[in-house]
Amino acid sequence: MKTTRFLVSTFLAALATLFFESSRIPLLPRVDWFLIAVAFQSTSGDFSASTLGGAAAGLAEDILLHPVRGANAFSKALLGFLLTLVSVRLVFAGAIVVAVALGVSTVLDVVIVNLLGKLILKTPFFFGFEDTAGAVLTGAVGGLLYLGWRFPWKEEWRRRQRRRLR
Amino acid sequence: MRTTDPRIVLPTAPGGRAKLVLAGTLGGCLLLMSAQARRTAMGPSLLESIGLWLASPVVRGTHAASGAGRELAGGVASYFAARAENGALHGKVDRLERELMTLRAQAEQVDRYRELLRCRAELPGARMAAPIVSVERRGAYRRALLDAGSADGVRAGSPLAVPEGLVGRIVTVGGRLSKAILVTDADCAVGAQVRRTGEQGVARGQGDDILMEYLTTLSPIQKGDIIETAGIDGFYPRGIPIGRVVEISRGKSLFLSVRVKPAAPLSRLGDVLILEPSPAQGSPP
């Protein structure tokens, strides 16, 4: 189940990233879909799975997009561990909590990757408007996805059916 | 996230194994990065090459899907743009068609006026042209309304004519409209003569045609003879064609009964020339 969750979420994150990068829709390419996938994996509550899943998702991101191979893997593995910690220690529920957690995680991710780039490739540290927008958007999209995931679609459909039968 | 299933017990803190996995993963990533840092000048790593090779179909697929989505969005936008443009063009075409119809009507009117003015020299005292706006045909009465009145200089008693012949006479003048009696009206009588022989009589309207009266049975009138105004009635100037003789019969008395077909196309009148009233105008016959 965890493997399926990991595979599906990482694959969908890769698809979404590539799709929105290719599209010219403004701002949506700034969403960190891989981090959303890692957050989804962390809801399993399994630290090892979340860490490895995060590393794998980050590695996929590194291979596809990033110049420092392993930087995103490092960051996502750490964030997978931290998000799992949040989900088991604190209440990781509700769209706003999820959105805030994802927004903060995005900022952390950017900071970690930037620091690693600075340490390894001597690239300058930069945190700009796009990174802030990315954090906000990732949080918002994560919150919306959480709402969609947790919404009682079946009950709502049955309720509508009952109302129609009356 | 906390699970709601009480049978599943999740650890609330990371165990030693989890910490070990984290440390190992992070260490591996660091090793990967440091190896990359040492080999920056040696081209892509094997992992990178394999990753790119594996990812290439996905990248191509998503790129194609994204392109298709963009094209679809562009197509939808183009559709709506084309729809709006189509509506605007339809409106423009309607407006242009209306303009064209108006211009055609105006051109036809100009042609009619030109035709009327061409014969102005032949018709004595032609003053102006005016359109007939309606013709009333009731019984033997034939009356018409002209779109010209006293404001345009129209005077009562003015004869009306077209290039083909006499139409009638204005009987009432309003500010912008005038009422006319046609030559075929039962109340209309015109002093007439046979153009070929010069014999005079009275042409009286009969509804659709005209009856020429007071020609003696000794008259040499023939079918096809042209009847014209004689200029003796005080209304109509001399020499305007009234019509052509179509039937001659002996009347009850000493006079012939001559049926005349009007020269002017009274059933399809458009514009008419208003002539100067005869200087010898008196009371209508």
Your description of this structure?
- The complex is a heterodimer of chains A (166) and B (285).
- Chain A has 166 residues and is mostly helical.
- Chain A has one domain (2-165): Orthogonal Bundle (Arp2/3 complex 21 kDa subunit ARPC3), CATH 1.10.1760.
- Chain A has helices at 2-22, 33-42, 47-64, 71-89, 95-121, 129-150, 153-165.
- The radius of gyration of chain A is 17 Å and the shape is globular.
- Chain B is of the alpha+beta class.
- In chain B, 34% of the residues lie in helices and 29% in strands.
- Chain B has helices at residues 16-38, 46-118, and strands at residues 126-138, 141-146, 159-162, 165-173, 178-182, 189-194, 200-205, 210-216, 226-229, 241-250, 255-262, 271-275.
- In chain B, the strands form two sheets. Chain B has a six-stranded antiparallel beta barrel. A six-stranded antiparallel β-barrel of chain B has the order 6-7-8-11-10-9.
- The longest helix of chain B is centred in the N-terminal third of the chain and has 73 residues, at 46-118.
- The radius of gyration of chain B is 48 Å and the shape is rod-shaped.
- Residues 1-9 and 281-285 of chain B have low confidence and may be disordered.
- The A-B interface holds A 14-15, 18-24, 43, 45-48, 51-52, 55, 58-60, 63-64, 68-71, 73-74, 77-78, 81, 84-85, 87-89, 91-93, 116, 120-121 and B 1-3, 10-15, 17-19, 21-22, 25-26, 28-34, 36-37, 40, 45, 47-48, 51-52, 55, 58-59, 62-63, 65-67, 69-70.
* Overall morphology of chain B: rod-shaped
Based on CA atoms alone, the radius of gyration of chain B comes out at: 48 Å
Output the structural class of chain B: alpha+beta
Mean pLDDT of chain B: 81
| Total strands of chain B | 12
The portion of residues forming beta strands of chain A comes to under 5%
| Count, helices of chain B | 2
- Main β-sheet description of chain B: 6 strands, antiparallel, barrel
Considering DSSP H and I runs of 4 or more, what fraction of the residues of chain A is helical?
Answer: over 70%
The count of strands of chain A amounts to 0
